[in-house]
Each structure stands twice: as C-alpha cells, then as structure tokens.
Design goal:
mainly alpha; elongated; 199 residues; 8 helices
C-alpha cells in the first residue's frame, strides 16, 4: 500500500507542482529536440531534488533521465508524450514488482522505499491528459461510421489502424479497453449490415 507521504512533495519552498506550469495537452514540443517538454521539467525537478537533498526523488528522476539518454544514443529517443508516459509506466511497474518481492521477504524498509518511488512516478503520470472511456467509444463509433459511409465493412484491424493515425495518435489511453471496445462495436455492426443485405 502506498503511504500518503509517498504521494506528496517534500516540505521545501523550492518545489513547484509541475502540473501547475505544464500541460501535456497544450504545451508545445521543443523545436530543437522534438522531445516532450516534460523532459525539461524532469531535469529542473532533479536539480530541485538535489538542492532539497531528497534522495528518493533524485534517484527516481536520475533513473528516468538516464534511460531517456540511453534511448537517444540508440536512436530511440523519447519524441512523444505517449512514449514518455509508457516509460514512466514501465518504471512504475518495475517498482511495484520490487515492492511485492521485498514485502514477501519481510523487508519493510525496502518496501517503503519502493512505495515512495511509486508515489513519485504516479504523481508525474497523473499530470498527463488521458482519453476517457466515453471519448474512446465516441472515437471508435465515428471511425466505424466513416467506413460505413465509404461502403467498406469495418474490420477490427482496419478500425484500429485508422484510429492510430487519427484520434488516437500520440494519445494516452487504456489499450486493453480500446481493444475490447473495438471488438464489441465491430461485432455489433456486422449483424445489422448482414440483415440489411438480406432485405
């Protein structure tokens, strides 16, 4: 269980909520690097963590930035909000797994450290704008209607591909919900089209 302490910034006047100064939906990308502006904010936060002697936050931010630098060297640099979100999610998942292992080994000290890291990562993840379930349904429905207007039977893979190039491009969403919703809505369309053809 994540402690309430893990979900808060340290008591330091130098800290500023990054979501107050940054919005993934409205901020422009760095023209020179093509990287999401949050990366610059992470570097600023790392400097603040160093000043505040917040070792846990400093380690989290160093880990993130070290990985992004490594990806850049491999020509796989973080270019979109979605890529950065997935990176943070991956690191959060690793900390969750580590916390479970430490808890099973009765290492409450290490479990607590992992939980603090999870709280810090979740704080950044919460700052991203994500597509709601209703918005996902609306986008899928609109895309299916496009296929019908074109006289083409909407198939799952084609619907997903068009969404990836359109409404879902660089959009942070629940991939499992998307797949489930597309399957359901495509299957709902098929019987009605078949009935119309028989008439």
């Amino acid at each position: 269980m994540i402690s309430s302490r893990a979900l808060t910034r340290p008591a330091s006047k130098s800290w500023q909520c990054w979501r107050c100064s940054f919005s993934t939906s409205s901020a422009s990308y760095n023209v020179d690097t093509g990287a999401p502006p949050l990366l610059a904010q992470l570097r600023t936060d790392m400097k603040e963590a160093l000043k505040a002697k917040d070792k846990t936050r400093l380690n989290v931010l160093r880990g993130i930035l070290t990985e992004t630098t490594s990806l850049e060297k491999e020509s796989k640099g973080i270019k979109t909000n979605k890529q950065l979100y997935k990176l943070l999610q991956k690191r959060k998942s690793a900390s969750l797994n580590a916390a479970k292992e430490f808890q099973a080994a009765n290492r409450e000290d290490l479990t607590g450290k992992e939980n603090e890291q999870i709280g810090i990562l979740q704080g950044y993840l919460n700052g991203f704008d994500t597509m709601t379930a209703d918005e996902i349904v609306g986008a899928i429905q609109a895309t299916i209607q496009e296929f019908e207007t074109e006289g083409v039977t909407p198939k799952r893979d084609k619907v997903r591909a068009r969404l990836s190039r359109g409404a879902f491009e660089d959009t942070i969403l629940d991939e499992a919900l998307v797949a489930k919703t597309i399957n359901r809505m495509v299957h709902e369309v098929a019987p009605s089209k078949l009935g119309a053809a028989q008439v």
